[in-house]
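Intended use. Records like the one below are meant for learning the mapping from a protein sequence to its folded structure. Do not use them to infer anything beyond what is encoded.
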Amino acid sequence: MPLVLRASLGLALLAGFTCSDEGKPSAGAYCKLPEEGQAPACLQFAQHTYTEFFSGLAQNKVSDAEARRLEADVEKGAQADRPYEALSTLAYGYYRLARATSSQGTADPETLARLEHWNELLAKAYATSARDPGYREAVREAALDVHRRAPPLGLHCTDSGGNPARCDSTEAVVRAMGEVRDTTGVRGEIGRLFDRLFGTRP
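Structure written out for the chain above:
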């Protein structure tokens, strides 16, 4: 293999991969949730980055340490080393934990709190990525994907009028994303987004 081609492949691997619509690993794209009964093949590179997180998901639970590691990466948004891997992993984790909680028939307060926190992370990632439209659209796609696929769960959020409510998965996140699209200024977007989602924040 020519040296230049070998170097290019090496750089591509180091850049990190997620998945395309065809379910194959590709750089700089959100990895859609797999269809029922299918393995998340496009998350194979993310599984190397977040090995313990995925091991926990296989048992329908995630350790606090591994959750915090992923959350820290998502919180960095487009500035993270592998932002699409982190975003795709969070969406997949959300989907798996929501399904596990729903199948148990009882709402696990710890898991519900974690999913509510992940809603906040998705909202913040969207609000702070105005200068990176590709990543911002990926965050929106992830929130829509989870909203379509995750089973209904009663999470704390606010309704379209800003009043406290219960909502299903990322419903309020998706709604708020649409409402802030025409606002200007990162600080203003964050404030509006969090007010719509969770009420006034300090």
